[in-house]
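Sequence design from tokenized structure. All designs in this work follow the same two-part layout: the structure record, then the generated sequence. An example of the structure record is given first.
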């Protein structure tokens, strides 16, 4: 009954979009339908209140039993918490932070206040509270305390922890000692009201360069905090981010633990909406951290701001720039193909590319005349692939004819928007650790069609932030930040040819049309490469206009067969994506709390 009333409310407020959601539902595209309908009726704060209530309802005795066991096993693991004070901090804020630490079920922690007047916050009866002045003496005190600790974390005055937070962190310790542990977080105001939880992805260094998504509480192994990892003010929040970047650069996912539970409350006097929060410092401090990272890594990169005001590290491709073979399969569809080809030839600023148009039995006279004309341009070749449409086979065939060391899979229903699109994608693709690199794709109305692919959505794979307005922030701005993702769409995908061939290319036997791009990306990820979403390369994608929808008859039967292959091969129906979060709904594509 509640769903009926929600639908009626949505129809009254947004009749056309509600009917669109119903249309997709009737056609069996339930993930897309839920996504469109959910945008119209959702109350995220109500969801989060229910989530917190369910968490609070867990059996306290059971939690304490686990806490006691963890404390017993890890009792010798000393945690140092650094807290940088300033003149703006109020005593009540500091008291809240101290109280949350004193309430911890895990006992082996030490809090070091750093800053002038820090000693005024000490408790004579609490041996775990210490103070150090600002400046060089404070830095020296921090370094001395860090040498005695196993893990080091940071808190800001006013921020607080759930009572089981440190226990949950210590529970991740096994025979190995992870280099970094972090959790999800939310906001808390002066009245103790909690809102706007940030459910974070697993370890994602590319996203960390774009923004400080790790936030608090993050614990780093103390023995790694040395040399260039230690800034001149290690106790500050910037010092923490500096250490994260310097320590995190070489880390693999198995060296990092993400506790997907909200254990840290970030104090804000007035709530900032989640879509107003910039996880990055977005300022001089962020720029300084990135400059130090580039200097250490010897990177030739510019540090600039994007259209959303984020500080970004813009990589470049060293000269001589490698040849890229852009592959555009088509069967007639002249209007779309011509628009795609012209936009590539006329707008692309990256000069060293060739364009391979793969003709899959085009018959119309106008199409063939266009091929005869466009092939006169030195960058263009037309090669023929006769027979039934098989997207994977067509592209594998074209790769065999490609002269470039890098290949681009480009749908004929795309159109270039940003002239630097290929520069941006190639700057990532040339990295030794890079797998497939994908662009931001927009529908014709300017809404997002692709901003990275997440497995598990709809028990298969979905496009994060689909239908989001391009000028809207999205979930903590992730639609607009460069980051590692498990997959990118084959509608616009760049990959080194040698890597493509090493993992077997696209599956032309079992994934002829659908999910072959996801499968390719997961094979590259399985081989140890990182697939990368690049939001600064933007194209239109007039989705599936050239081959139609997978809605009925043999097309639907084929789609279901290929969906089953993806599930069986990669278990997409069993667990959420490593770059997603188990608390977010896999039944939608808008990062809604489950």
């Amino acid at each position: 009954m509640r769903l009926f009333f929600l639908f009626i409310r949505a129809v009254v407020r947004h009749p056309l979009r509600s009917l669109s959601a119903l249309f997709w539902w009737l056609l069996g595209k339930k993930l897309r339908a839920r996504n469109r309908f959910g945008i119209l009726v959702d109350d995220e704060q109500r969801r989060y209140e229910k989530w917190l209530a369910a968490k609070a309802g867990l059996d306290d005795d059971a939690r304490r039993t686990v806490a006691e066991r963890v404390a017993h096993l890890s009792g010798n693991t000393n945690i140092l918490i650094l807290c940088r004070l300033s003149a703006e901090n109020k005593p009540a804020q500091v008291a809240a932070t101290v109280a949350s630490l004193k309430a911890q079920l895990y006992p082996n922690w030490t809090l070091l206040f750093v800053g002038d007047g820090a000693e005024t916050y000490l408790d004579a009866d609490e041996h775990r509270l210490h103070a150090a002045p600002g400046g060089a003496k404070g830095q020296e005190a921090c370094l001395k305390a860090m040498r005695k600790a196993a893990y080091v974390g940071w808190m800001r005055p006013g921020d607080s922890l759930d009572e089981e937070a440190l226990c949950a962190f210590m529970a991740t310790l096994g025979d190995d000692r992870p280099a970094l542990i972090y959790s999800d977080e939310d906001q808390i105001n002066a009245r103790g009201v909690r809102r706007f939880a940030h459910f974070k992805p697993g370890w994602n260094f590319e996203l960390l360069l774009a923004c400080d998504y790790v936030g608090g509480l993050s614990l780093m192994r103390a023995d790694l905090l040395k040399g260039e990892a230690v800034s001149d003010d290690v106790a500050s929040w910037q010092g923490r981010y500096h250490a994260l970047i310097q320590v995190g650069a070489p880390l693999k996912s198995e060296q990092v633990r993400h506790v997907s539970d909200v254990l840290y409350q970030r104090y804000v006097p007035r709530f900032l909406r989640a879509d107003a929060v910039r996880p990055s410092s977005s300022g001089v401090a962020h720029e300084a951290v990135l400059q130090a990272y580039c200097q250490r890594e010897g990177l030739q990169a510019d540090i600039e701001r994007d259209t959303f005001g984020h500080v970004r590290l813009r990589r470049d491709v060293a000269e001589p720039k490698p040849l890229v073979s852009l592959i555009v399969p088509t069967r007639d569809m002249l209007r779309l193909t011509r628009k795609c080809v012209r936009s590539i030839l006329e707008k692309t600023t990256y000069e060293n590319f060739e364009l391979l148009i793969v003709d899959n039995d085009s018959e119309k006279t106008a199409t063939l005349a266009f091929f005869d004309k466009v092939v006169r341009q030195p960058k263009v070749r037309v090669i023929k692939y006769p027979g039934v449409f098989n997207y994977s086979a067509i592209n594998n065939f074209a790769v065999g004819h490609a002269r470039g060391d890098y290949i681009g899979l480009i749908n004929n229903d795309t159109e270039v928007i940003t002239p630097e699109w290929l520069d941006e994608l190639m700057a990532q693709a040339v990295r030794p650790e890079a797998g497939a690199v994908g662009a931001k794709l927009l529908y014709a109305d300017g809404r997002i069609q692709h901003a990275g692919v997440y497995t598990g959505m709809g028990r298969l794979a979905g496009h994060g932030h689909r239908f989001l307005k391009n000028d809207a922030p999205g979930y903590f701005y992730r639609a607009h930040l460069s980051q590692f993702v498990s997959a990118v769409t084959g509608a616009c995908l760049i990959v080194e040819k040698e890597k493509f061939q090493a993992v077997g290319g696209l599956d032309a036997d079992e994934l002829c049309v659908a999910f072959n791009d996801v499968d390719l990306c997961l094979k590259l990820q399985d081989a140890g490469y990182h697939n990368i979403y690049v939001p600064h390369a933007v194209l239109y994608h007039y989705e599936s206009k050239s081959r139609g929808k997978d809605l009925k008859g043999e097309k639907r039967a084929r789609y279901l067969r290929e969906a089953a292959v993806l599930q069986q091969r990669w278990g997409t129906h069993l667990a959420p994506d490593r770059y997603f979060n188990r608390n977010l709904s896999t039944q939608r594509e808008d990062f809604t709390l489950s």
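The chain has three domains: 2-42, 63-279, 324-570. We note this feature because it recurs in several other targets discussed in the main text.
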